[in-house]
Amino acid sequence: MSNIDFGELKNDTNFTTIVNNFSKSLDEIDATITEAVNYKDYDELTTEEKVKFDNYLAYTTNSLYWMYVRLNGLDPNTHGIKNELSRVRQAMLRDKQIYERNTIRPVLDKSAAGRFIRHGLHDRSNREDEEDGGEEVQEEKKPAKPLNKKIIFDDNSD
């Protein structure tokens, strides 16, 4: 366990468990931030990785300061840290948008698009000839009426 002197509260298991978990979490945060600050291979990261790393450090530092302000009894909503946290969040959202734009954008399948276009432009009368094995049919084909034309009715067809 930890070497915290609980005094009168040493028999309160709920309290000691909470304090020990809090102490353990603080140690983990300290180790993570120390490792991030002392990161040696920063220059070898790509630009995208550097942006993510910098956003991570800025958000972590600002979040910890927000907690510090809160623990001191000040209202973090009226403190300048609120603006800093929102600024870092906006930077993280912008980074996410850039990443998604570069990776999740649709890709055109040129061969499929060509088939769609070819099928859409294909004349149906030629297609029927092809289905019959290329043999010409003896029937006379009437020229197809253009689509979307007005139909005129004769009233004199008595």
Explain the overall architecture:
The chain is an all-alpha fold and 158 residues long. Among the domains are: 9-38; 46-104. Helices cover 59% and strands 0% of the residues. Helix 2 runs antiparallel to helix 3.
What distance lies between the first and last C-alpha atoms, to the nearest angstrom? 108 Å
Give start-end ranges of low-pLDDT stretches: none
Sheet bearing the most strands, described? none
Q: Roughly how many Å is the radius of gyration?
A: 36 Å
Q: Summary?
A:
With 158 residues, this protein is mainly alpha-helical. The chain is 59% helix and 0% strand.
Q: How are the SSEs ordered, and which strands pair?
A:
Elements: H1 13-37, H2 47-71, H3 81-103, H4 110-121, H5 124-131
Helix pairs in contact: 2-3
Can you give keywords for this protein?
single chain; 158 residues; mainly alpha; 5 helices
